[in-house]
Structure formats: structure tokens, C-alpha cells
Amino acid sequence: MVETPATAPKIEESPDLLSRRGFMQLAWGALAAFLGGVAANSLRFLFPNVVYEPSQKFNAGPAVDYPLGVSLKWMREQRVWVVRREQGLYALWGRCTHLGCTPSWFGGEDRFKCPCHGSNFSPQGDVIAGPAPKPLWHCKIELASNGDLIIDKAVLENRPGFRENAPYFVDTQGA
Ligand code: FES
Questions:
Q1: Whose Cα sits closest to atom 4 in ligand 1?
Q2: What is the pTM of this model?
Q3: Tens of pLDDT along 43-89?
Q4: Which is more confident, 94 or 22?
Q5: Under a CB-based contact definition with an 8 Å cutoff, are residues 136 and 169 in contact?
Q6: Do strands 69-71 and 88-93 pair parallel, antiparallel, or not at all (unpaired)?
Q7: How far apart are CA 84 and CA 67, in angstroms?
Q8: 3 state SS of 89
Q9: Distance, CA 130 to ligand 1 centroid (Å)?
Q10: Beta bridge partners of 35
Q11: What percent of the chain is modeled with pLDDT above 90?
């Protein structure tokens, strides 16, 4: 006959068992932290970097304020010349098409001259001398209902036949 003890023997946990358990908790914690980091970095791609640049559109004021010729009014602030001809108005972006310098207007010679490498441009923006490979850009220009000129430097055209028409030209004849 087998004798059974009245109470079960007490099993003592060894210090080794505790340290193994602690190690596993640490490992799970590290894995959770790693996966959390991966998830956070993945979520970051849902929010692309955005460069908040100032608007390229500006109000150049009443069209009637521009007399015949080239106005330098917005050159310093917006790098734009507003030009009035008999037929209407257009806006030229003051950036040389060679390497991007800012030309100056020489009214006595009826041309823009670039100080960097000598390109010359007609009042329409066509290249008449120097290394510039193409005409100056005309900006989008519109006449608002209150008579103001709205110029948008983000919309550009320099091809003859296109730049003389809306939205790169405001016909003011009869206005
Ligand atoms: S940048 Fe104007 S000519 Fe070179």
C-alpha cells in the first residue's frame, strides 16, 4: 500500500526561474517598442512634407494706374514688370532665361538688359542679344471685376501666339 502525504509538498521557485521570466518580459517589451516604432514611422508617410511658400498670385492694383510703357512698380517686391501697350497690358517675370539673373529696364534703349552675361530682351521679352535661349516669361494676368490686375507668377507662357492672348494679356481697349 502506497502512503500519500496529507499535504502536497511546497515547491519553491528558484531564483533562476524568476530571472528567466524577467528576461522574457523584457524581450516582449523590447519587441513591442520596436513594432510601435515601425508603426509610427509607417504612419509618418501618410503625412507628406509640405513646403508652405508664399502665394505666387498678387493684386497689382487698378489697371488704369498703369500708363503706356514699362512699370517698375512691382519689380522689387514681386520681380514683375507690368507693361502697357496700346492694346492692353501684360506682366513679365523679371528672371533672365539664361541663368536666372534679374535684368534691368533701359527705357532709352527700349530693352531689358541682363547684367550677368549681357542678354538683351525686347519689351515683349524676345531675345535680341546674348546667350539667353528663350524669351522672358509672361505671367498670367487677369482683370478683376473691380478693375484691379491680378497677376499669377505660377502660370507662365513665352511662346509668340500664346503670350499675346488671355490669360497672359489683358485687352483694355474700350475698357
Ligand atoms: S543670366 Fe542673364 S545673360 Fe546670363
A1: 117
A2: 0.71
A3: 887 776 776 778 899 999 999 999 999 999 999 999 999 999 999 99
A4: 94
A5: no
A6: unpaired
A7: 6
A8: strand
A9: 8
A10: none
A11: 71
